[in-house]
Amino acid sequence: MRRSRSGNHDDPTLVAAEREGAIELQIHVGVLVAHAPETDPDQLQTFATQVAEDTVDELASATEVTWRFYLEDASNLPDHDQRRPSEFLDHATHQMVEGPYDLIVVVTDVPLVSSKEQFVPGLASPLSRVAIVSTENLRSAPRNEPRRSLEDDAVRWNTATLVVHLVGHVLGARHRDADGGVMEPFRFDPERRAVPPIDADIERDLHRIAAELSAAEARPRGPIERFAFHVASAARNPGQILQALGNSRAPLLPLSLPKLSTAALAPTLVIVFSAESWDVGFHMTNVTAALFAAVSVLTAALYLLFVQNLTFPRKRHQIVTEHTALVNVTVFFVLLLAMVGLFGLVWTIILVIELVVFPPNLMSNWPSLEEPAVGFVDLVRTGAFISTVGVLSGALAGGLESRVIISHLALFPDRP
């Protein structure tokens, strides 16, 4: 929430809907239409405008602040393929800074899939303050019935309900099962002709959180100031980052990236049978091995962050907002935990090879060993050293097959 500075707020032709609240503060929402080829953008923009008009009253009533929805130019997608919501993040975060906007609602007509590869009508990211709505799912009809049109009342009011539901998630509201309000788990109701009310308890929470939406912003003069602003933003909002990380399952990410895992594991299967690697591992101290592993994991995460260009928005701006900084910090920690998970995966495999495949007395006969006894700690340390090399090679050679999977696992839940 912010009082308007120079930007699109000064152009009344962009206002799709507005409702004055009892409090002077304002929430500016950018509405972005992303349409498939051959889709009439004017029709989808008209529908998005109607949805904004249907939702603004309920949101203003619940939060008691002024809400304004601004319709931006439509974006033409290259194909009709299904998309993850994070594929819209780059454009959304760019427009959020350009607007400037406090929230972004993206309306698209291509299928939307969750991280579990399930088709969903919409998803929201409280951390990035972006909500994605797909009319593809909302227009579907029962078997042997014609596909619903955008003019259908059921499509109109279910979309409006979904938008209020997702904005509620952005403002911190959680699901309330079977209470008849807008925050119960969303389902398409063909008889719906109005937006359900927001529960009174949720109204108090939304009012409180809406008053905290005044995101800090900075105009960093260089990378050091930009880094300092990201650190300060993370220090002010540790709970949001920890919640996103808890939902991300980041340490399991290497299992979803076979190219990265293969690039990390392949060289270690060769190195583990090399006498030189065992010499280094046995003569390395535990502290040195631990530091080498920590630095390598951190280096791999930073390398992927910058080489894969995973920060938002990807187009550099003079202004950096706090919620954009929180998105970048979260994505970095997701990468860091993913590299820890990759290290653990490779380490486990190497340790199994050491304990099961290698003859128990083989290492004891090596002339480079000062003591013939080879203990379990020696095997663990050597396995850690070899695994560290694997993590570095995985990041450098394998990389990420899909940039969007990182931001999706970090920012978007699995259901509306």
TrEMBL record:
Keyword Membrane: yes
Signal peptide (from-to): none
Gene3D superfamilies: Collagenase (Catalytic Domain) (3.40.390.10)
Domain of life: Archaea
GO MF annotations, alphabetized: metallopeptidase activity
UniProt KW keywords: Membrane, Transmembrane, Transmembrane helix
Transmembrane regions listed in the UniProt entry: 257-275, 287-306, 326-359, 379-400
Name of the protein in its database record: Uncharacterized protein
Native species: Natrinema salaciae
